[in-house]
Amino acid sequence: MTRIIAGRAGGRRLQTPKGDQTRPTSDRVREALFSAIEAWAGSLHDLRFLDLYAGSGAIGLEAWSRGAAAVTLVEADRRTAELVRANARSVDCDVADVVARAVATVLAEPARSSYDLVFADPPYPLPDEAVATDLALLVEHGWLADGALVVVERSRRSPEPTWPTGLTPLAGKRRLKKYGETNLWLAEAGPTDSLAP
User: Fold this and answer.
1) What distance in Å separates the CA atoms of residue 125 and residue 180, rounded to the nearest whole number?
2) Please, are residues 156 and 126 in contact by the beta-carbon 8 Å criterion?
3) How far is it, in rounded angstroms, from Cα 61 to Cα 55?
4) What's the CA gap between 88 and 11, in Å, rounded?
5) With contact defined as beta carbons under 8 Å apart, do 54 and 75 qualify?
6) Between 78-90 and 58-65, two packed helices, what is the crossing angle to 10 degrees?
């Protein structure tokens, strides 16, 4: 079990998938993640949040609890996606859009909406090239609002993600947050009109 840390559903418990098909982000890393997001955004109020490789949905539901207006959670495993839906119901989140499809397949389509915040937590064994493809698809297919923040969680042993044109790593110490075996890499989207050929 894990829990929502703060906000309207703070303290509420969430179920996690059984077995080892997911790697839940620890409470400590989630708290650090949202501290970094709130330092960047000021507040999640009325922002749109995209949670890729959602697992239990804890990150996306935490974003909603802290004020996000809409949350889309993408999880390829259908049983895990059903668990995300159950977790959303258990915390009374009625704005969670759970998509039970592979992340790369979803991102290869034109965006349903543009998002202000994107969190990607791919399985650590996923090749760096596949992560780079996901990031490029976010830019190419209109998933990012102007100035959107993108956060990628990777193993400490993985290199910095390859950022496509249109995503710029944050400056200085804001670019990378380290927590034990976990690295959080942060980048910001440029204005979409600057990406036109």
Assistant:
1) 17
2) no
3) 11
4) 14
5) yes
6) 20
Widest pairwise Cα distance in the chain: 47
Band of pLDDT at residue 18, cut at 50, 70 and 90: confident
The residue type of 55 is: G
Strands 48-52 and 115-120: parallel
pLDDT at 35 over 60: yes
CB contact at 8 A, 108 and 52:
no
Dihedrals phi, psi of 52, to nearest 5 degrees:
-100, 140
Q: Which domains does the chain have, with CATH numbers?
A: 2-195 (3.40.50.150)
Q: What is the mean pLDDT of residues 76-98?
A: 96
Q: Would you tell me how many other CB atoms lie within 10 Å of the CB of residue 39?
A: 9
User: How far apart (Å, rounded) are the C-alpha atoms in residues 124 and 13?
Assistant: 25
Both structure tokens of 88: 């959303």
Task: Please give the Cα distance from 94 to 104 (Å, whole number).
Answer: 26
**Residue 89: what are its φ and ψ, rounded to 5°?**
-65, -40
| 189, 118 contact by CB (below 8 A) | no
Distance CA 55, CA 125 (A): 15
User: Model pTM greater than 0.85?
Assistant: yes
Separation between Cα atoms, residue 93 and residue 85, nearest integer Å? 9
